[in-house]
């Protein structure tokens, strides 16, 4: 991964976001960019180069589909995260889905698919 490119974590639960950031540290990866809403994530996607993203499907009262669309438009690899029970739209059905509770091996495998 280029030193100027980070992974974006889109997760509305602050504790889960902290746990994921700890997993990045355990994997000896740079601190991820973090967003808790579509609005924050879209601003980060527009502002900095990203090596990939993990996008929670359920962001409070909204879904992460706009983030997925923006990442796809910029050819940034990403995977979805979810507590389960979500149907991924056909345009993104080929994307990896990592279910909660997260295991560090699942996170590591997704990041390896991004080339990280």
Automatic annotation (TrEMBL):
It comes from the Bacteria. The keyword Methyltransferase does not apply. Residues 6-115 form the Response regulatory domain. Keywords: DNA-binding, Phosphoprotein. InterPro entries: CheY-like_superfamily, Sig_transdc_resp-reg_receiver. This is DNA-binding response OmpR family regulator. Gene3D superfamilies: 3.40.50.2300. The modification 4-aspartylphosphate is found at residue 56. The keyword Transmembrane helix does not apply. One of its GO terms (biological process) is phosphorelay signal transduction system. One of its GO terms (molecular function) is DNA binding.
């Amino acid at each position: 991964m280029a030193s100027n490119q980070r992974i974006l974590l889109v997760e509305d639960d602050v504790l889960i976001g902290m746990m994921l950031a700890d997993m990045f540290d355990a994997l000896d990866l740079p601190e991820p960019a973090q967003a808790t809403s579509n609005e924050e994530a879209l601003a980060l996607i527009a502002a900095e180069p990203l090596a990939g993203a993990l996008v929670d499907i359920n962001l409070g009262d909204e879904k992460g589909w706009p983030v997925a669309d923006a990442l796809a438009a910029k050819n940034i690899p990403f995977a979805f995260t979810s507590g389960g029970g979500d149907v991924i739209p056909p345009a993104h059905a080929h994307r990896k889905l990592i279910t909660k509770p997260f295991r560090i091996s699942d996170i590591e495998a997704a990041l390896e698919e991004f080339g990280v």
